[in-house]
């Protein structure tokens, strides 16, 4: 009785189908977004904690003044989008690794996608529609830098 042992590097999986390799692009995105996020996060921390008066200076007026500049709006939105998509892609990878059933995987990945999409939408709206001095509000409720 003889047994045949396959060569050690024989592929276990069938050959890859034609089309876009989403796993490869997800892997590349994680590396690229990670590098960009490091720059964005350290720039954010540097401007908020080192350049100004530190943590004690961060309040409503600080955020209002910072978001008055389109540069800082786009900086924060880029950080928000990259971080949420980066985290969502990481969670998708975990689901692919550990979820057993195809339906379970689909439900979990759908929930991750929905959460990321809703948070991106709401966060972007907050940054671009933020108004520290809303019209028609009582003067005692407005910050000190607003003209009453």
UniProtKB/TrEMBL annotation:
One Gene Ontology molecular-function label: metal ion binding
Protein name, per record: Succinate dehydrogenase
Cellular component aspect of the GO annotation: membrane
Major location category of this protein: membrane
TM region positions: 28-51, 71-89, 110-130
InterPro entries hit by this protein: SQR/QFR_C/D, SuccDH_FuR_B_TM-su
Domain of life (superkingdom): Bacteria
Source organism per UniProt: Mycetocola zhujimingii
Subcellular location, record wording: Membrane
Matches recorded under SUPFAM superfamilies: Fumarate reductase respiratory complex transmembrane subunits
Tagged with keyword Heme: yes
Alphabetic keyword roster: Heme, Iron, Membrane, Metal-binding, Transmembrane, Transmembrane helix
Record carries keyword Lipid metabolism: no
């Amino acid at each position: 009785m003889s047994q045949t042992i396959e060569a050690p590097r024989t592929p276990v999986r069938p050959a890859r189908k034609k089309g876009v390799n989403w796993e490869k692009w997800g892997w590349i995105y994680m590396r690229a977004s990670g590098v960009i996020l490091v720059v964005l996060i350290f720039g954010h921390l540097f401007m908020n904690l080192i350049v100004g008066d530190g943590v004690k200076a961060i309040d409503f007026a600080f955020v209002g003044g910072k978001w008055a500049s389109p540069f800082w709006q786009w900086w924060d939105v880029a950080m928000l989008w990259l971080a949420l998509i980066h985290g969502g892609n990481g969670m998708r990878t975990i689901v692919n690794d550990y979820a057993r059933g195809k339906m379970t995987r689909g439900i979990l990945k759908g929930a991750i996608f929905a959460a990321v999409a809703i948070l991106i939408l709401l966060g972007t709206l907050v940054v671009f529609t933020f108004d520290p001095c809303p019209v028609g509000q009582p003067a005692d409720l407005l910050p000190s830098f607003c003209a009453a």
